[in-house]
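Take a careful look at the sequence and tokenised backbone pasted below. I need to know what the token row says about the fold.
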Amino acid sequence: MSVSITETVVGTGSATSSLSTTDLRTIVEEALEDVRPGERVLAIIPDKTRDDNTHLLFPMAAQFLARRNVAQFDALVAQGTHGPMTHAQKFAKIGSGALDLPGLGRIFDHRWDNSNELVTLGQFSSTQVNELTGGLINEAVDVRLNALLTPGLYDTVLVFGATMPHEVAGFAGGAKYFFPGVAGPELTHMTHWLGALATIEQVIGRVETPTRRMIEAAAAFVPAEVISFTSVNTRDVEGLKTHALFAGEINETLRAAALVSAEVHIKYTGRKYARVLALLDEHYDELWVGGKASYKLGSVIEEGGELIIYAPHLNNISATHGRLIEKYGYAPLETVREMVEYSDELRANLCVAAHLAHVSYGSTLNKDGLLTPRYRITLASAVSEEVCRRVKLGFLDYRKVRRDDYENDPNTLVVENAGRDLYLVEPNVR
């Protein structure tokens, strides 16, 4: 399916397209035509947990802006609550070394938990939150972002990123690069918890979600002109392929790209499996992001079945939130809601509460009438057995995993690069 373009969006692509460097440069330069000489420009870029084509697009933008004689061009990493990248990782992300980056100033880390590096741009009243969330949440919240987005600091903000199905917003990309990408703790916690309350089955792989409504309304507080570059990518043995790139108005580029992503990144199995062996994508080096294996495969696992996450490279639950995850453990949403009700600590860290429920995915009643996770999750990684038991996951020595044993079982689905694509039994009724 080819996507039609509006007056506020330039670009092209489809599930079967493979855009060339020339195609990408043409789209980038057309989108930047209205940037004036002397402007101050800030680029918001993905962090290392995202596999996308920023290393191609960013140099194209830098070169065009240098010819346009902008006064300033800096970058801010949309790392959310993730830890900072190294200097080398940052420059690899933006294509340094392979291509020239004229005029680039500083690359800033985002400190989501440092009030001195945040600015309040507005507030949603409890009534507004209630309306945006469809009644799921009813409390006021401040709209706080990285202080680099303070009015008057930059004239134009560029947002680089890719889209694919996402457990909190429905699809990644767009306004999500502001919230939680460069947001303060208030909306970071609220939007994650909102995604959990809306339930993962009703969110992932859908564009119009309560979280999408909230983050797009919050992004309207950004005072600068925003130009978004939203791509749809896949990776195989031949490398990264760009199926589509749309640039321009941030909400419309997301929707155009999501139409293509739905064809590229959603797979239909036609049945459920008793067991899924998820060979976790190596971009996910801790379970905070590696939980995507459960988010994107849970729909095709039978009740009482098992998900094995095979990830020898994964050696951490979460560098940022590990203590809380180990204290409370993964559990169904109903259980997590009870824990939140009685724990000030979890209420202050709702993004952790949401993660606990999202990884657990769903619930069922066991033979004793007790609420339990709908399927078991076993971690075959560098995380110790002690930690696995503490967070209520099974443990399997990854050195004993033999892929052939699973591929020969008709009741087992083996998934390469797990966490990238969403697997459903059949298309959602939207």
Summary: Residues 9-266 form a domain with the Rossmann fold fold (CATH 3.40.50.11440). The chain is about 30% helix and 25% strand. The mean pLDDT is 92.
